[in-house]
Amino acid sequence: MNEPLDGAGPTPDATLRRTASPTFRLLASPIGRLAVITVLIFVALALLAPSRFVSVGNLTSMAFQFPEFALLSLAMMLAMLTGGIDLSVVGIANLSAILAGLALHAAGPEASAGTATLAIGAAIVVSLAVGAVCGVINGLTIGRFALPPILATLGSGLIYTGLGVAITGGSAVLGFPAAFAIIGNGSLGIVPVPLILFAVAAVGVAFLLGRTAYGIRIELLGTNPLASRFAGIDDFMVTVKTYVLSGMLAALAGLVVMSRANSAKADYGSSYMLLSILICVLGGINPNGGFGKVSGLVLAVLSLQFLSSGLNMLQVSNFAREFIWGGLLLIVMVVNTFELVRHRR
Amino acid sequence: MPGTSRPSLLARIDFGRNETLLVLVILAFSAVTALVAPSFLSLPTLFDLLRNSIVMGIFAIGVLLVLISGGIDVSFTGIAVFSLYTTTLILTRLGVPVPWWAAFLLSIAIGTALGLVNALFIAGFGLPTLIVTLGTLSVIRGVLLTFVGSTLISNLPVGLKEFARLVMIRGTTAEGYFFSLPWAFAALVGVVAVTWVLLQYTTLGRSIFAIGGSPESARRIGIPVRAVQTFVYAYVGALAGLAGIIHASLARVANPFDLVGLEMSVIAAVVLGGARLAGGYGTITGTLLGVVLIVLVNTSLILLGIPSTWQMVVIGALILVGTGVPAWQARRTALRAG
Questions:
Q1: Is the pLDDT of residue B159 over 50?
Q2: Chain B contact for A329, CB < 8 A?
Q3: Which residue of A has its CA nearest to B277?
Q4: Do A277 and B134 touch (CB under 8 A)?
Q5: Residues B220-249 as b or e (16 or more Cβ within 10 Å = b)
Q6: How far is A163 from chain B (nearest CA, A)?
Q7: How far is A56 from chain B (nearest CA, A)?
Q8: Interchain pair A159, B328: CB under 8 A
Q9: Beta-strand (E) ranges in A42-170?
Q10: What angle do CA B311, B317, B321 make, to 5 degrees?
Q11: What is the model's pLDDT at position A5?
């Protein structure tokens, strides 16, 4: 991304970068520091368990695992950039997957190639459309009815999850055409399909944020809503667009989860909400809005995936993992505040 | 209205008030339920409603304080379950019979300590309240289930068993249905009374409103904002500890998987009661009415023949409609004014 869009103009960071040595410059920028941390985690795990961690099997399995929560984190990031938050991402992912799953279920596992292709196409359209509708609802309640984003997405998230429970009666939707597994489990050459989906989404979002007028509007809205309104920005349209995009990314994540699990259920990925907030905060996205880069988010996703694999090897329970993610979130936020204090001086 | 004749009862009701709307919604909901299921209008239903409101009511009073102070707390259910489980475990391991109030004090102390952890991050480091309490919720629950225990304790300490048997009101209807109200209800009444006096008549209470309305103005008129915030989160922790131990005592089991997940319903109740997420405004009456509405919805959906799977949708819709309409009205008034 180019320099003028990088945050709020000349920061102490920028002056440091011009004067100091290359190593120092790397460590002074938040993204550089995160890159160093990510590499350190990777090296540490590679040294601790060389045969298990740096194996082709582990690396590919990691590449299949992270795209789903990385997509949810992208969705969360967009909401955070506007100064909001989207607590409904997991609800949207599951509801859109359940509705798309019903289309796939209608085709059934023994569908002919033609029917299966049709059903998969329909499922993708249904899922993205549901994600967009959910996003419009979020955008309307926040932009038009002036509900605080926390409340609006808390309420809508309950509705989306609740609809998912009500439609399925709480059980899983099963019985998809075998070809649907491609989205979550297939590979193009050696590159996993979910990774390609995430890469395309990440590059798309980075382009929108860094190279388009819409990206600048989001940044201005998130930095100072009042000033952006006086600057003539249609804050309602920006809000709606952002939550629609966020909803569609969440729906895409839902498709990946559904394909990997070969089923759709209203309570899948319930721990992903905290994880996606953690990734955003770790990736340097300001929860109060305005600042954040896709590159930071990608690095945060990678470092958490490495850690997660490490915890898997140590056979750490899910409860302990909950504790570790929560603790990490708190520590990173505290470190970030010290960073801000240092910058102000 | 000075000098005018006394207006009729209907004219004196302020329909713009959140509390009035809530009362009307509750009455309408009860009326519909009573039409579909006449058994709804009975003393046992009323006492069920009161009993189910105890734990949620105590939680809601805590959440009310946080919302007034301009924050939000989603960790209180985690604090409650941590306090109740750790207290039960300690007392079981001790083996010495202790009176119920000692168990209560221990649970409240644990809850207060955990509330102070929230305060450290929020008042100490000035971090966003939602993200901090999401973090502490998973840390507290993770520590509980990993290091403290993850199995049910169904043989509660003697003191807690005795407390569950303390019944304030009991009786039998003409049809032979049994109803009762445990003394635990007095805890809710006590919490309401103490919090009401605190909010209405103490400098500390008024300071909570002030920092929620505008932290900067509050700081400039000399209110120690951080100290007040610390008090608020410690108070919520204490109430969570109390609600937790009461829940365990009434349920006659200490379940480490309990309560977490209830936080959204409690926040919904408080927000429906008119407290503003932006801070600075909220009433105890509204909060209690919000609790009654949520408990009523939970119990009467089944009587209405709506599957319990729809419960979440109804609560979500209540949050959006119940807070969206006032927010929209406020926005329109603001637009008209200027």
A1: yes
A2: yes
A3: A148
A4: yes
A5: eeebebeebbbbbbbbbbbbbbbbbbbbbb
A6: 6
A7: 32
A8: no
A9: none
A10: 150
A11: 40
d(CA B182, CA B168): 5
What does residue A41 show for φ and ψ, rounded to 5 degrees? -60, -45
**What is the rounded distance in angstroms from the CA atom of residue A206 to the CA atom of residue A212?**
10
Q: Which CATH number fits domain A31-344: 1.10.3470, 2.40.160, 3.30.70, 1.10.238?
A: 1.10.3470
Candidate ranges A33-37, A148-152, B168-172; pick with highest mean pLDDT: A148-152
Q: Give, as one character, the DSSP assignment of residue B167.
A: E
| CA–CA separation, B248 and A181 (whole Å) | 45
Rounded to a whole number of angstroms, the distance from the CA of A120 to the nearest CA of chain B is: 28
Q: What percent of chain B has pLDDT over 70?
A: 95
Are A241 and A81 within 8 A, CB to CB?
A: no
Higher local confidence (pLDDT), A343 or B151: B151
| Contact present, B85 and B144 (Cβ < 8 Å) | yes
Residue in B125, B143, B278 closest to A334 by CB = B125
The C-alpha R_g of chain B, in whole angstroms, comes to: 21
Q: Residue length, chain A? A: 345
Residue B309 per-residue DSSP state: G
Nearest to A267 by CA among A185, A181, A171, A180: A171
CB A253 within 8 A of CB A93: yes
Is the pLDDT higher at B332 or at A118?
A118
Domains of chain B, first to last: 16-29+39-301+309-332 (1.10.3470)
B278 touches chain A (CB under 8 A): yes
Cα angle, residue B162 at apex, residues B157 and B165 outer, rounded to 5°: 135
Kindly report the CA angle at B272 between B303 and B38, in degrees rounded to 5? 20
> Between A151, A160, A320, which is nearest B319 by CB?
A151
Residue A183 to chain B, least CA–CA distance (Å): 30
Q: What is the DSSP letter of A186?
A: -
A133-159 pLDDT, tens per residue?
A: 999 999 999 998 888 899 899 999 999
Q: Do A155 and B316 touch (CB under 8 A)?
A: yes
DSSP string computed for B27-70:
HHHHHHHHHH-GGGSSHHHHHHHHHHHHHHHHHHHHHHHHHHTT
Candidates B125, B131, B320; nearest CB to A281:
B131
Rounded to 5°, the CA angle A8-A9-A14 comes to: 115
By C-alpha distance, the chain B residue nearest A155 is B316
A318/chain B closest Cα distance in angstroms: 8
Output the CA torsion sign for B76, B79, B81, B83. Answer: negative
Number of Cβ pairs < 8 A linking chain A and chain B: 139
Phi, psi of A87 (to 5 degrees): -80, 0
* Contact in structure between B283 and A115 (CB atoms under 8 Å): no
What's the token pair of residue A23?
A: 């190593």
Residues of B in contact with A281 (CB under 8 A): 131
B169 has which bridge partners?
Answer: B181
| Prediction ipTM score | 0.86
Of the candidates A282, A267, A297, the one whose C-alpha atom is nearest the C-alpha of residue A333 is A282
Nearest to A162 among B137, B268, B310 (CB): B310
Please report the sign of the dihedral spanned by the C-alpha atoms of residue A116, residue A118, residue A121, residue A127: negative
**Per-residue pLDDT tens digits for B33-53:** 888 888 888 888 888 899 999
